[in-house]
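Subject: mismatched residue count in predicted assembly?

I count 1106 residues in my input, but I want to confirm that the predicted structure covers every chain. Input:
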Amino acid sequence: MSTPNPTVGAFLFDAIYNTGTRYTFGIPGDFALPTFRWLDQSKLKLITLTHEPSVGFAADGYSRASGEMGVAVVTYCVGGLNMLNAVACAYAEKSPMLVISGGPSPSDRRTDSLIHHKVKTFDTQRRIYDEVTCASAVLNDPETAADEILRVIREVKAQCRPGYIEVPYDVVDMPIKLPQAKPAIVAVSDREMLEAALLEAADFINNAKQPVIIADVELHRHGLTDLALEFAKKVHIPIAATLLSKSIIRENHPMYIGVFSGGFSEPAVQKYIEESDCLILLGAFISDVFLGMNSVSLERKKCILANTEKTRVGLHSFENVQFADMVQGLLDAPVKVRERFENPNPPVDAVPLSAAEKTEALDADTVFRLLQLHMGDNSTLVCDTGDSLLGAIGLRTGKSNNFISDAYYLSMGFAAPASIGVMAANPERRCITIIGDGAFQMTGIELSTAAKLGMKPIVIVLNNDGYGTQRHIIDGPFNNIHRWDYTKICALLKYGTARTANTKGEMEQALQEAMAGDDMFFIEAMIPKHDCTRPLKRLGEQLAAQRDPSKRK
Amino acid sequence: MSTPNPTVGAFLFDAIYNTGTRYTFGIPGDFALPTFRWLDQSKLKLITLTHEPSVGFAADGYSRASGEMGVAVVTYCVGGLNMLNAVACAYAEKSPMLVISGGPSPSDRRTDSLIHHKVKTFDTQRRIYDEVTCASAVLNDPETAADEILRVIREVKAQCRPGYIEVPYDVVDMPIKLPQAKPAIVAVSDREMLEAALLEAADFINNAKQPVIIADVELHRHGLTDLALEFAKKVHIPIAATLLSKSIIRENHPMYIGVFSGGFSEPAVQKYIEESDCLILLGAFISDVFLGMNSVSLERKKCILANTEKTRVGLHSFENVQFADMVQGLLDAPVKVRERFENPNPPVDAVPLSAAEKTEALDADTVFRLLQLHMGDNSTLVCDTGDSLLGAIGLRTGKSNNFISDAYYLSMGFAAPASIGVMAANPERRCITIIGDGAFQMTGIELSTAAKLGMKPIVIVLNNDGYGTQRHIIDGPFNNIHRWDYTKICALLKYGTARTANTKGEMEQALQEAMAGDDMFFIEAMIPKHDCTRPLKRLGEQLAAQRDPSKRK
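Triage response: the counts match. Full output below for your records.
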């Protein structure tokens, strides 16, 4: 007697479990209910959220914090299209995520009838997802479904980008044909190109006076951070991170000099990078954010660039060189060991509040200074876009991989739902979520899910009465928002403790109470309307100086 | 001296104003800030919301309530992609909407650099929007921008579907080249086909015993409702509406027999329609919702179908017949005048609560019965998906065009943000918004915008502790949600009055207080977890009977 084949649904969730993922995130809907029934019977845990944009961010947060593939399960169109922005964020920032959507039956497709949730054609959702994913499949046929599932998962893992699987509501219950053993096509480096690139890179580094590594997020995504750090330690070259990779190594590491982000950077970091004659950019996104909204430019002839898309030494590109081979290769390449270097920007102890300061009005910079003083080493910071992110540039987190933000795609509303995924991945770390008031109005209500699950984030809303970062670009009535009594969120959710901090002393007290307690702790930090953090001020000064040379420092 | 040409931004908003639209809806972001500056200086009013999914629904609500084009203004990708589901809803339900998105500069496109918010390519957002719109343009060139703007607006108005205009952040400030006068291509009917269709239709109707008109939403979208009603009155043929077109004529009109939606319908309506030998389907969407989740089927040979896509009499299709010509033509066609008909389902007075009932536990049906008793003629009902919609089937609203729901696309979370647009369009009508607790958790927080603007909706949350409608399909832990203290929404927003109604008497009292007052009034209506409205029960019984003939009534 042979065991019957599993159903499409059972096979799908087993395949996901086998990749290492343990949590999934979703919201059901009628086209997806049979899929949810299989998910409920699988070994995977499911966290349901309140709104689909949050489902995507939570799955992404889980992915970033755990290193595993994030999984988002939604219904057809009304769910899937509502989540699109969060998946686009994962695509842009190369975070591996699998979207599973319920879908119409193959028989619906044959008659092309008007079924609720249908937009233009039954393929509308898949076509849209093709624009924000690296692989997609519609499981119309249980004969090919297993191979399709494995193909999409393989691409997601290899490319660290989202994939899309649409599961018809009836096919999900059908027995699957087991996968055909096919050798996976694994990309390999052109050995001659690789060796030439490594020798040229080694030579370039050896001839440089002030080489520095910028360790960016693709190292983390592809599990190569340890190799890069080993290389740095072996040859004594310091490491900077970027806003997107912040905390890729612990930020009190002796080799670490801080976050580079052009004109947003701490001055010592910016100076050291700009004066470097050899920037080793590993896994880097050379984006406008990387360059501090293009406040600086980096000469390509001074750079060694290796990421999943390119390998370049100075102006020489090398084709068909795999990123992992290049990073591994650097470790074995003939790079000379340097004298121990003087860290241009070592961590400094944050200055405690003086008695006089405690009664002063709170400002944005002080929130981050107090976080540095009190957050301890066992916290993960999740920062939303704007000053919530910029203010954290100079803050040093105590462990690796404990800072999470969508620092390239910059979608407001990321942090609250992403925190749900982060807490699922790292229950042993305290999650501190920092959100502007505008972004909090977008998705802050997702703390409902923290309440449902008994999660205990510390949530800090930087309330500067509107879209503060935008006020520094173009101000107008469109940057005004309705002023909530934010602390009432705890009453609405019947969960957590809330404080409003008007002064620096109140902020410190709230933060200490939050850290000491065992509860969701919500802090409304009152920030003057036109205040901003030092990094944003620095950028403004540098951009002004570019326009007016007399203001150059 | 010649007047300088207006900028692209000024021209765009002037062109929109000239169509009759008065309100726009949006959320700014850096790529869109220069566009918002022009919007702020235009004759249009701008309502900013909290989250982009709401922007789309609010613009759609405005469109449905005003009959004008809804306008949604957002930033590139993080805004536009976040709003996609609401635009898909407008596409699916043929509601005219114009999406205006900020975008990158043509010079960014030339270098194809990594700019924040970029996903795959700079064309990603436009390609995605091409799947949910009828026309799109990216205004990279001020020489052609005016023609492009007018082309997209013309298509939106003609097709009653969304269009997309992407405005680069720098081009918006440039002087525009005034439009070239080009004759617009207007589709015209094939006269021979039209005449044949009309004669055959007249003959079909004249030979029928029980003809009935189903007046669907395309009549409303294309301004043809009055013609259809005139036809009905002239020849004495009764009119039904659908869930999507409910209130297309006032529901106490003597020619009106109720809402047809297959097995969801009131029994008298369903019987009358199913027994009809001539269904005149004007502007109809023959969807699964139309057919009560396919609980009934309609024989095509008994139908006359005229909408923007098809003209069919029995099994005969007629090509190139314009919908408007067909409706106008029916009025002039040789259709015989019938005897006055007996309305099979006249409006009946709702039965007041007895003294004994007042202390009974509230249920879903009673909410709608009390609405019928107390909502008066000057209210607009906005209903979310699920029982919030189904419960309203038998309720008779007192004026035309005062019922709004996304009754085909069925996206949860529609009602709260759509209400913002509805109230902007019809400030003189009281807006009553009915939302399930699950849908309220999605977008209910958008009442923030009502608070900001001093709008005074009556909001009824049907709290049945989870995704109630889904529990009747497949139940599981995925249908559970965190139970909020919903009435605390007023404290969070610092606005409005809130009541919880546990009994029928409390519900009546709350509703009377709400109607009498001049405030946002929030009512949490406590519904037993497994209760549902009569229409959903009726459907369940009919579907069960189809499977088991012994249960047929």
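The domain at 8-173 of chain A is CATH 3.40.50.970 (Rossmann fold). Marking this ticket as 'not a bug'.
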